[in-house]
Amino acid sequence: MSLAPRLDIRQSQSLVMTPQLQQAIKLLALSNLEIEGFIAEEVERNPLLEASAAEDSDAPDREPVAEVRDERVAADELVSGTGAGDEPTLDVDYATESHQQDSVADGGSGMDGALSMTGASAGGAGGEDGPDLDAFADTSLSLADHLLAQAGPAIPREDAFIAAHLIDQIDEAGYLTVSLLDIANRLGVPLVRVERVLATIQTFDPTGVGARDLSECLALQAKEADRYDPCMARLIDNLDLLARGELTRLKRMCDVDDEDMADMIRELRGYDPKPGCRYGGEPAQSVTPDLFVARTKAGWAIEINATTLPRVLVNRSYYTELSGGQQDKASKAWLSDCLASANWLVKALDQRQRTIIKVATEIVKQQEAFFLKGVAHLRPLTLRQVADAIEMHESTVSRVTSNKYLSCARGLYELKYFFTSAIQSADGGEAVSAQAVKSAIRALIDTEGAKILSDDTLVELLNGKGFDIARRTVAKYREALGIGSSVQRRRAKALEGVR
Question: Which helix (H) or strand (E) holds 357?
Answer without folding.
Answer: helix 329-366
